[in-house]
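FIELD: query
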Amino acid sequence: MKEIVVRISGQPNGDYNGFPTEGSIIDPLDTFWKAERVALFELGQILVTTEAKIRLTVPEISKALRRHVSGDWGNVDTEDWLENDRSVAEGYRISSLFRSARRDKFWIVTEADRSATRVSIPEH
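FIELD: result
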């Protein structure tokens, strides 16, 4: 069973909507993290920025990660969608764009070497 280790970006300063603390081990079979579709690529280490932890909930992040890893790129335009499809096949960086229940936009980006996936809120 593969474990997902959480590394938190920034300094913790309060409740992060139930998101695990730095160094936590997430069981990939946990209901929040269980993929319902086939994973097309490895996510690597999952990094969540402080702003994303403040504004997003664990279920929102988990659902978006499941979509991302299964080839649903969210709200990107057609050109970016096709580029992501190519990136999966050719090993390039993959970027998805989603919206939270509060309508906050957030990115999920997996690095080309599949060593890490970052969840972040676009800067204003």
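FIELD: remark
The two ends are 39 Å apart (CA to CA).
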